[in-house]
Design a protein that fits this description.
By secondary structure, this protein is of the alpha/beta class. Helices cover 32% and strands 24% of the residues. The longest helix has 16 residues, at 278-293. ATP binds at residues 110-116.
Length: 460
């Protein structure tokens, strides 16, 4: 079958393209911006790429057109598909109908931690010899690619609540029909498509309706928004975990880099790993319990987490020069910013922490989280808020309310110069859900320039 994908260079659609290509289908695709690294991955997989949305790319007509959720009416290729009566579907529906039939789907949903938890879960299954398939909205360090078919029925999917397509406004995850579901947490997000938290809870309720009675729903203890959602109806086994719950955990180090998995008051296994933060301990517990649902013991899962290599753009150390460490993190929500900085603070103690934050997400651009932004960076010693083009509200109020020294920067080069002028030891955490103009490499380059001739540096 010839499948043509409109919007193929997004993380989800590009990963999906590689999966269906691996099944033997002929896959072509187009996007407004065809560029590395996704374009390189797709070309290496034998997927022909086309720049732009000229309707000529759809002649001769493919057997099926897959339309990404970033495309809408008015797009010339979309209009051609509709005018010619071509068969079309969404990415989520294609995944459900072509890749997932006959699979034991393990879905990881929630406002925060989906990518990390799904990566942990896929790695635990892999380490146990279960050869899972997966589709994750990031690149797990243990695998190096964002998706693969796998060789067994087990399939891990990062289950996103964002809408499916212009013609299907349900959340993507309602298509997946999982047997094991992790619900990490639930807060208001995606203000461009959801009016309030209740609307998101409705979509999570629809997800729960698809889980079989012999399936399992795993969630942290005491999450009010999730409990409200479960109260609307849940027909599956439910397993809750938490520091004060059973199963649960005991922190052996304040930064969460070592913890004991507890059950019925007894320590079952110890996780000693490179990650930090109580949020990652919760992510790890969720992954352990999801893996146990398919037969991996807590002991084996804990040992696997000790070998977990993290995920690109999740507190990824991009380099260290002259005592300055530069981290890259995907945080783009006040809670994610706060938990990321809390984990780092617990690890580095009194060392200086500088947060560089770009409020870039659609929800941020709409100003829906502005009241919570100032406090979210309280664990940093100083904050630079970058005002990107298109942010139509002022960050002045965030600066005024900041509990730590803070300022706004609108020029990327000036931002890099000011950070590079600061002495080490210093931990710089760059937080954005976009590329942020390559600021990480620019900063590392500027730091190298201040080194004496012949000195070295470490790149992550």
């Amino acid at each position: 079958m010839h499948i043509h994908i409109l919007g193929v260079c997004g993380t989800f659609m590009g990963s999906l393209a590689q999966l269906v290509r691996a099944q033997g289908h002929r896959v072509t695709g187009s996007d407004q911006n065809v560029y590395p690294p996704m374009s390189d991955q797709l070309s290496a997989a034998g997927i022909e790429l086309i720049q732009g949305y000229d309707p000529a790319q759809l002649e001769p007509a493919p057997d099926l057109v897959v339309i990404g959720n970033a495309l809408s009416r008015g797009n010339p290729a979309v209009e051609h598909v509709l005018d010619q009566g071509m068969p079309y579907t969404s990415g989520a529906q294609l995944l459900a109908e072509v890749v997932l039939p006959g699979r034991w789907v393990l879905a990881v949903a929630g406002t925060h931690g989906k990518t990390t938890t799904a990566s942990m879960l896929a790695w635990i299954l892999e380490d146990a010899g279960l050869d899972p398939g997966y589709l994750i909205g990031g690149v797990p360090g243990n695998f190096g690619v964002s998706a693969r078919l796998g060789g067994t029925p087990f399939f891990v999917v990062e289950a996103d609540e964002y809408d499916t397509a212009f013609f299907d406004k349900r959340s993507k995850f309602v298509h997946y029909r999982p047997r094991t579901v992790v619900l990490n947490n639930l807060e208001f997000d995606h203000a461009d498509i959801f009016p309030d938290l209740a609307a998101i809870q409705t979509q999570f309720h629809h997800l729960l309706r698809t889980v079989p009675s012999l399936g399992r729903v795993i969630l942290p203890h005491g999450e009010a928004a999730l409990e409200e959602t479960l109260a609307r109806g849940c027909w599956s086994e439910v397993e809750r975990f938490g520091e004060q719950a059973d199963p649960g955990y005991r922190l052996e180090r304040p930064d969460g880099s070592r913890f004991t998995v507890m059950e019925k008051g007894t320590g079952i296994a110890v996780v000693d790993w490179s990650l930090t933060g109580r949020h990652n301990v919760n992510n790890g517990m969720a992954a352990l319990l999801a893996a146990r649902h398919v037969g991996v013991t807590l002991e084996d899962g804990a040992a696997a987490l000790g070998r977990f290599q993290g995920v690109k753009r999740r507190m990824e150390l991009r380099g260290e020069v002259d005592g300055v460490r530069v981290y890259d993190d995907f945080a783009h929500h006040p809670t994610a910013i706060a938990t990321t900085l809390d984990g780092l603070r617990r690890r580095v103690g009194d060392e200086q922490v500088l947060a560089v934050i770009e409020p870039r997400s659609n929800t941020m651009r709409l100003g829906r989280h502005r009241e919570a932004l100032a406090a979210s960076a309280r664990d940093a010693d100083q904050v630079i808020w970058y005002q990107p083009p298109g942010l139509e509200w002022s960050l002045d109020a965030v600066i005024a309310e900041s509990p730590v020294p803070a300022r706004v920067e609108t020029d990327l080069d000036a931002l890099v110069a000011s950070v590079a002028a600061q002495p080490g030891p210093l931990n710089v955490v760059v937080m954005s859900n976009g590329g942020f103009g390559g600021v990480h490499e620019k900063l590392l380059a500027a730091l190298r320039q201040r080194l004496p001739q012949g000195s070295g540096s470490h790149d992550g």
